[in-house]
Amino acid sequence: MSNFVINGLLQSRNPLLTFRRFRGKINIQRPRPPHYERARVLEVIKPYYKKPDFSAPCIDAEQAKEMKGKLDNPYETIIAREARNWFEHSDLVALVHVNSIKQEDMFKAQVALHRHNVSVKVYGKSIMRKAVKDTRFEAILPLFEAKTAIIFSPEVQKIKQVLNVLKKTPQLVLMGGIIEGRLLNKNEFMAYATMPDLTTVRAQFAAVLDNVGGKIVGDLQCHQSQLVNLLDAYSKIESQTSVPSTGDGSVSVQQADS
């Protein structure tokens, strides 16, 4: 009984599928027209394309560009305001081109700069256009055609530390910078790093002015000092020459040894 149930009732049978080709030969070049109902549906859903004008692509592209310019992204406006604030309150700004670099190496460079109170920011071209347009920093816009990182520091004295970190990271290429509101190229930026700080320069300038003043006073007193020295020497010579008198009224002259 159990064998009957297993073999007869519980046994599953897979259907047999047989694929047969269409009985007639299919003509690809001149196919048979579809059924009437299907032909009606195909005629209704047939797409209709308007023939474009010759200058339509240029006009559409210009209109799309104008519409994109009119659209204001609030998020980009906030980031652009932040970027402008960084430019306004940073005495040292370095513009660095970013080549292909691992995120781990980029993070190490950011940490090394952060230890010296230096920040690294990366902004897109559209954000930078909003940030520096109609400002004194507008000349840096061509540098953002490719990926560019910006290094900000509130202290100009950090320029040597910035150059040391960039030297250890060859993927970051220095293109120029802004120091105290003045745009410098790469050579000027590196030459500025070799200059002493402002306190040392002021001390050197004060020493130069002091030396010049002392030289002027010495030149003005030169003739008087020379005259005094000559008169002093002449008085010493006269003192060495004496004219003693004798008792009978004769005068004897003694010459001093020369």
UniProtKB/TrEMBL annotation:
Top-rank taxon: Eukaryota
First and last residue of the signal peptide: none
Gene3D superfamilies membership: 3.30.70.1730
Organism: Anopheles christyi
Binding partners and assembly: Component of the mitochondrial ribosome large subunit (39S) which comprises a 16S rRNA and about 50 distinct proteins.
Lineage: Eukaryota, Metazoa, Ecdysozoa, Arthropoda, Hexapoda
Name assigned to this protein: Large ribosomal subunit protein uL10m
Alphabetically ordered keywords of this record: Ribonucleoprotein, Ribosomal protein
Transmembrane annotation, as ranges: none
